[in-house]
Amino acid sequence: xxxxxxxxxxxxxxxxxxxxxxxxxxxxxxxxxxxxxxxxxxxxxxxxxxxxxxxxxxxxxxxxxxxxxxxxxxxxxxxxxxxxxxxxxxxxxxxxxxxxxxxxxxxxxxxxxxxxxxxxxxxxxxxxxxxxxxxxxxxxxxxxxxxxxxxxxxxxxxxxxxxxxxxxxxxxxxxxxxxxxxxxxxxxxxxxxxxxxxxxxxxxxxxxxxxxxxxxxxxxxxxxxxxxxxxxxxxxxxxxxxxxxxxxxxxxxxxxxxxxxxxxxxxxxxxxxxxxxxxxxxxxxxxxxxxxxxxxxxxxxxxxxxxxxxxxxxxxxxxxxxxxxxxxxxxxxxxxxxxxxxxxxxxxxxxxxxxxxxxxxxxxxxxxxxxxxxxxxxxxxxxxxxxxxxxxxxxxxxxxxxxxxxxxxxxxxxxxxxxxxxxxxxxxxxxxxxxxxxxxxxxxxxxxxxxxxxxxxxxxxxxxxxxxxxxxxxxxxxxxxxxxxxxxxxxxxxxxxxxxxxxxxxxxxxxxxxxxxxxxxxxxxxxxxxxxxxxxxxxxxxxxxxxxxxxxxxxxxxxxxxxxxxxxxxxxxxxxxxxxxxxxxxxxxxxxxxxxxxxxxxxxxxxxxxxxxxxxxxxxxxxxxxxxxxxxxxxxxxxxxxxxxxxxxxxxxxxxxxxxxxxxxxxxxxxxxxxxxxxxxxxxxxxxxxxxxxxxxxxxxxxxxxxxxxxxxxxxxxxxxxxxxxxxxxxxxxxxxxxxxxxxxxxxxxxxxxxxxxxxxxxxxxxxxxxxxxxxxxxxxxxxxxxxxxxxxxxxxxxxxxxxxxxxxxxxxxxxxxxxxxxxxxxxxxxxxxxxxxxxxxxxxxxxxxxxxxxxxxxxxxxxxxxxxxxxxxxxxxxxxxxxxxxxxxxxxxxxxxxxxxxxxxxxxxxxxxxxxxxxxxxxxxxxxxxxxxxxxxxxxxxxxxxxxxxxxx
Length: 954
Description:
By secondary structure, the protein is α+β, with helices and mostly antiparallel strands. The chain has four domains: 83-150; 214-327, no CATH class; 333-509, Ubiquitin-like (UB roll) (Roll); 514-950, Porin (Beta Barrel), CATH 2.40.160. It contains 17 helices and 38 strands. The strands form seven sheets. It has a 17-stranded antiparallel sheet that branches. Strands 15-14-16-11-18-17 form a six-stranded mixed sheet. A hairpin with a 2-residue loop joins β12 (365-366) and β13. α3 (73-80) packs across α5. The longest helix is centred in the first third of the chain and has 39 residues, at 83-121. It is globular, with a radius of gyration of 36 Å. The two termini are 38 Å apart.
């Protein structure tokens, strides 16, 4: 039966279609008389079928207006707003703003005249001059909504330009020459459409490729044996790794002809690859300009003999900078390492006076950084060399801090074997007696430094006396940046005679302590909320780089009541939940409590210590959660992060639940063991936590067109308590053991998520996600996973054809259960999404999507028949399609998605697809013995769901 709501939706859809068609009819309305709109480009390639036509189309100078679903929405938006009216409105606003500012200027003048007169009456020569700032920004005025639509989202019509058409033909010919087609021909013509009202043109381009040249052999040209050997090492490395980098991959492979296509773009790209390899092989200053090619062609067999030429460096003469000299490439070593801590936070007194009077310097800053006047020498002793007998009691003091000739223990530096790689000099501005510039002992200097020197030196890979490698410099910068304690990090490499460099790091400490207030809106699977937090942060606690955060937060959010009568999200959107609680977090360099300086530099772990308490008041119950986390995080290259919880005590979580009497009575009446387990006091002691994260976004290669991310989390809880200490614990009649009066949970859980993003072009992205998760409760837990570790289905970040937490579990027929709960949970989850995103980088974006998935229980639940995972799980996937609009405000994305369920796993087999008949569905309802009110409360199985979200769904 068609309802009034259905009729209204159909009318709105017809009206929207009418509006779109009306706009579509005016795409040429802003094309000047005698001009033509570029409809599309047509490219025909004849000859070699290996030519990349997509790349050739990008060479064409004029591209048509962006089209989405064959509609030029951006052009329509541009044409729909009258430019003259926008300009008139802008002039009107500017005039009003100018008038307001003139009034403010006149008011400023009157106020200051009165103040001046008052000062003269009192015989005072001075008075405070008040300045009233003008309103608005007259140079860069804020755009109105119509201007943003027209000029930010909109796109002006692309008018065909005959000069650009001719240039495109020339560019196509140049492109073919670069690809080795020296005998190509390019022709074209402009095709004016017969329909004069459209005022459109289609440019046609025809390219005849002709034969292609192939590289037959490669030879080297260099009189530098060291460079030649490094290049050959590069080739062998490429071959060993089975790299597809042509043509170098086949170089030296055999004596047979290479038969590699000649391609100038490929050869140019390899100059960058080889130059980077050489810099990472200790050749400081090696650049692509030091590599050139010579190509000897033979027309009879279309072959190329390619020569690779290595040239020397051209540098400034150190003794006479106006003269350029030639310098041969040679491996470079680090002569010395200096850390300049450019700040005066430790100096007590007037630093400017000291610099001027004592040092005779004209300014306290050089290159916008504070000069430094104190020196501290740092070194480490050799790890495997024992300390002298006189220092055995100081064995824990592994670091050697020296000032001139003596260390912290008062011993000569010759009495301790130093690690030549772990030597550095620190320049800073400390607190010392400036009256006679008296030197302090090294222990005092060590205490004066704003951060422990061992922590800073442990981040440096361009070590003293070691070889230079470019990626060492990049790695050091990233490590110093990750510490989070410096606002400015400026590496400077100074070349000195003897194929050596001196490394300087200019460091400006960041503000150590900060306070902030953060209001925010939240969205958890379509359930909205508002919250705020007061934060205190300390970036360098104990001078050890401990990033400490203390947060006190609270807020209101929407949560569904457990026994809600139907699944309408409107009933859970009234901010019925209050939350409040503090959080304390320490982000510590190294493996706490081990000193970071004792670890190998290749390791860069961090320790995450955190504790939190959260109090939540909901309509059904109030809940308190105490949690303690101890996690070690390891960074593996630029793409992987491995986190491991402290063995035996990774996470400790204690949950106390205080239910309302009506909620308790409902639970007792249902006698549902799964619900009782979910809504009860919980004690979770995780013995092990392992998290693996992969993201190729920051890999050594350029920004990948195909971005891959993978996350996997494994949790095991309750085993230490059960197998190690259960004999000393209380036990109930069901055999469950209790600790601190609460039955603790015992389970194993694995949760994974795999996401890919493929950039189809600059405006379109194809995103794919698949997530799986499974938990197994056992021994001390016989029903299901704890509530906080269970899985949910549906919502704005999950399957958008269902409201949050209403999908599943399994084939559970929710519509036949009058005692159903709104929130459905499970022990197993499987789902995926595919989304085609349009309009990347613009204010208004859109996407079409398909979601599929469900949740299941591990054990049989008599109260939810069909919820248990079975071999026919693939027949129980819920499927939805939809369309979404996103507003990108740079700092956040506001998202609206409309999901249409097309397959409902809870329905009978013959009625699960939207196009199936409903006979079996209505028959089940009729035979279920439901009352009229209960039947009226059954939600419609294929009704679309509207979701509001913050940020992208994945």
